[in-house]
UniProtKB/TrEMBL annotation:
Chain segments annotated as transmembrane: 12-32, 267-296
Alphabetical keyword list: Membrane, Transmembrane, Transmembrane helix
Listed name of the protein: Uncharacterized protein
Length: 305
């Protein structure tokens, strides 16, 4: 069409560079970033006065999850973790026949749980005890685990049982989302439990694609304050090798805190971003060369700048 040779060369170089850029952009937006986000899931936080779980001070069933490194339990210990941990409900005097706590067979986790967040002991052993009361006394008899009361100070991590408050049947969710309270021999503390709502994505593969994402919702119990237990009640075991944690629900009128997982980088969102990027590049080529990038690439158009 009477174009200068240099114009055609410049146009060819520009189209090649832009096509390579678009391919790299698509590779990162549709593959690399969604894979990277599958390990680093973003979380949004909301605050609401109302919740499907009702009042903060009334939870139907409370669960105590006790766990420790599987390798920290000695093979010749007198008992197992379920023998060393005891949960006692603290009922008011108005209850004549209060129901006791139960360690259900279906929820007795004597197997090993693998938690990538636990860098020191990726293999842990846990049990779950369910109680119908929000006022609980958790006792740990370390002599049942073969841990002496005067253990060396350098073995604190190995002689510690972690206690977490769970309000869901899934012990793995409790371990992953609740900051535990460590109990060591001779420690007796009083704590208050604050509730918040957690939403986790169910299917990693579908959320990776950005299609049909669903989440499960449960309540997390965080122990927000710890003080030495001033009680001198005989129900609190204070003998050698014993530790206790007395907890109650924190009475508060603040809004619910909701932590929700979501996907920011998915295959579908990358495809949409790619469409916008392609439109911008094609518009720029149409302005400079009188044809879109696709027409220039296949030699179907192009005018002088």
């Amino acid at each position: 069409r009477g174009e200068y040779r240099v114009i055609r060369i410049i146009r060819a170089y520009f189209s090649a560079i832009c096509l390579i850029g678009i391919i790299l952009f698509a590779f990162f937006e549709m593959i690399i970033n969604p894979i990277r986000e599958s390990q680093l899931v973003p979380t949004k936080e909301y605050h609401s006065k109302y919740s499907e779980f009702g009042s903060k001070s009334s939870a139907p069933v409370w669960g105590i999850v006790a766990y420790m490194g599987a390798n920290n339990i000695l093979p010749d210990a007198p008992g197992k973790l379920e023998d060393a941990v005891t949960v006692t409900p603290l009922w008011d005097e108005s209850f004549e026949n209060p129901p006791p706590c139960q360690t259900l067979l279906g929820y007795k986790y004597s197997g090993q749980y693998y938690n990538d967040n636990n860098r020191f002991n990726p293999s842990i052993r846990a049990i779950t005890i369910f109680c119908p009361s929000a006022k609980l006394l958790v006792s740990v008899n370390f002599s049942m685990l073969g841990i002496p009361d005067n253990d060396r100070i350098g073995n604190t991590q190995k002689s510690t049982v972690l206690i977490a408050v769970g309000l869901t049947n899934d012990t793995r969710d409790v371990i992953r989302d609740t900051l535990p309270t460590p109990l060591s021999p001779g420690l007796h503390v009083l704590g208050a439990v604050r509730q918040r709502i957690r939403q986790r994505l169910n299917s990693g593969s579908l959320s990776f694609l950005g299609l049909f994402t669903s989440s499960r919702t449960f309540v997390v119990g965080d122990i927000v304050s710890l003080t030495p237990d001033p009680s001198t009640s005989a129900i609190i075991p204070r003998g050698p090798g014993m530790a206790s944690l007395r907890i109650h629900v924190l009475f508060e009128s603040t809004d619910w805190t909701i932590s929700q997982e979501y996907r920011e980088k998915t295959v579908w969102s990358g495809f949409a971003t790619l469409g916008g990027f392609w439109t911008s590049i094609s518009s720029g080529f149409a302005f400079l060369f009188g044809a879109t990038l696709l027409l220039v690439t296949f030699g179907k158009g192009g005018n002088r700048i």
